[in-house]
Design a protein that fits this description.
The protein has 236 residues and is α+β, with helices and mostly antiparallel strands. 27% of the residues lie in helices and 29% in strands. A hairpin with a 2-residue loop joins β5 and β6. The longest helix is centred in the N-terminal third of the chain and has 19 residues.
Length: 236
């Protein structure tokens, strides 16, 4: 895909983000009573957990953000990587501290479900012992991982390369180190809650008025969130 077409695709994904999840990914709902008593880790610290560009890849300047929400804050750090000699082959990596608010990728996490079709799939996996969602989108050829860390932090990896590249970058992240940012020793990964949206079969839509099972489109939309942020950074 040419650079111009990739930019156009990114814009379309951004539009999908708005139309599918609206403001839900940036919800101000409190995830637990701990939210108002927890201060988010500064993005400069999260940046330290972004992997260095491996051989054959070039990393861009990492970006960090701190958001004020209700009585607290949440933070995020991201970095884009481009394959040397193939600028259209990219990887996006992000680390988020929700501070126990339902924000960003954590807000969408509760809406994911296991799914497989001719258009792609989403399934639960574990990464370094932590619960995660792996998704594949056939149309764009993108692989994505969302890794939940102690119901507070989350790591995000997305690539248009292949699954090996996805896990190469995913395995370069220090998940236990991120977990320890929450204070004290990290609890055993097995105690981390599984995604509540997990299912063993394709879900059905509720017949109750105003109620429906969250769609697989949420995965596409949240993937678009990081892609749009990366595009804005490159234009800045």
């Amino acid at each position: 895909m040419s650079k111009r077409r990739r930019v156009e695709a990114t814009i379309l994904i951004g539009m999908l983000l708005v139309s599918v999840v609206g403001l839900s990914a940036m919800s101000t709902a409190i995830a637990s009573d701990e939210a108002t008593a927890t201060e988010a880790v500064h993005f400069s610290t999260l940046i330290e957990f972004l992997p260095n560009a491996p051989s054959g890849w070039d990393g861009e300047e990492p970006s960090g953000m701190m958001y004020t929400i209700q009585d607290g804050t949440w933070s995020m750090a991201t970095e884009s990587y481009t394959k040397s000699g193939a600028e259209d082959t990219t990887v996006e990596v992000g680390v988020m501290d929700s501070a126990f608010y339902q924000v960003g990728w954590l807000a969408a996490w509760q809406g994911f479900y296991a799914y497989e079709s001719t258009e792609g799939y989403a399934k639960t996996v574990t990464v370094d012992g932590y619960p995660a969602w792996e998704a594949y989108t056939k149309d764009s050829g993108e692989y994505t991982l969302f890794v939940g860390i102690n119901d507070r932090f989350m790591a995000f990896i997305n690539t248009n390369s292949d699954k090996d590249t996805l896990y190469y970058f995913a395995n370069a992240i220090d998940y236990n180190g991120i977990a320890a940012l929450g204070g004290g020793a990290a609890p055993p990964p097995a105690e981390t809650a599984e995604p509540t949206g997990a299912a063993t079969k394709a879900p059905t839509t509720s017949t109750e008025e105003g109620s429906e099972t969250p769609g697989f489109e949420t995965v596409f939309a949240v993937v678009g969130l990081l892609a749009v942020m990366a595009l804005l950074r490159r234009r800045g």
